[in-house]
Amino acid sequence: MSEINSPTHISGSLPANYQEVLSWKVTGKPTRVITLNILGIILLIIFGAVFFSLAISVGKLPSEAKFEFGLSEIGSVLAGIVLTLVLHELTHGWVMQMFGARPKYGIIWKGMMFYATSPGYAYHRNNFVVIALAPFVFISALVVLGMWLLQGTSWVAFLGICGIVNASGAIGDMWMTMITLRYAATAFVIDERDGIRVYLPKP
User: Fold this and answer.
1) Nearest-5° angle of CA 18, CA 23, CA 29?
2) CA distance 183 to 198
């Protein structure tokens, strides 16, 4: 039996025969931050089209609908965006807890990014992928369900905006997922505020 499945292995700790093979931070290089923002804009356009289509097909929102934007409407949209970002990180944290970790939350002011992390806690690769993608899947599903339940109301447009913000804001999670999936399923991943560390068995 391999050490990864050994009953003596403590949840969240690295097996003794593992070594670090990657330390990656989105803020590690200016080009990464720029690339992340460019990709985020691309996703904003793509998911803008997706959720607009869903608002019409699922939410029964007329394609020619016109909306008035006063201070109250703008305030509601901004509040919705902030709540969406907070729920995004809370979802990361809830799934971390499901895998035995104790998440911590905060804001990286330099990049104006919310984060949820679990310092020093090592996850099996596949578990980390679930943590990374959970907010994108969960909140998108909530948005679509909400559109269906609130068909024909202005709430459909509001939910669409929240869905777009959440999906485009998941670009960092998607990027780290793609990096993580380059490694074997036996890999362990430690999440950091703005990046990851990957560990593999020593040769």
Assistant:
1) 175
2) 8
Alpha helices by DSSP H, listed for 14-60, are: 30-57
Q: 126 is written with which tokens?
A: 């596949």
Give the length of the chain.
203
Tokens of 98: 């499901």
Beta bridge partners of 196: 24, 191
The answer to whether 123 touches 163, Cβ cutoff 8 Å, is: no
Q: Cα dist. 2→11, 121, 140, 187 in Å?
A: 15, 20, 38, 13
Q: Which range scores top for mean pLDDT: 5-14, 75-84, 126-135?
A: 126-135
Q: Could you report the per-residue pLDDT of 12-30, keeping only the tens digit for each?
A: 889 889 999 999 998 888 8
* Dihedral sign of CA atoms 69, 71, 73, 75 in order: positive
Cα separation, 165 vs 154, whole angstroms: 17
| 12 touches 127 (CB < 8 A) | no
* Tokens at 199, concatenated: 């560990």
Question: By C-alpha distance, which of 199, 133, 201 is closest to 167?
Answer: 133
Q: Cβ contacts of residue 17 below 8 Å, gap of 6+?
A: 3, 201, 202
DSSP state of 199: E
Torsion-angle region of 120 (φ positive above 0: left; ψ -120 to 50: alpha; else: beta): left
| 69 has pLDDT over 70 | no
Rounded to the nearest 10 degrees, what angle do helices 171-180 and 155-169 cross at? Answer: 40
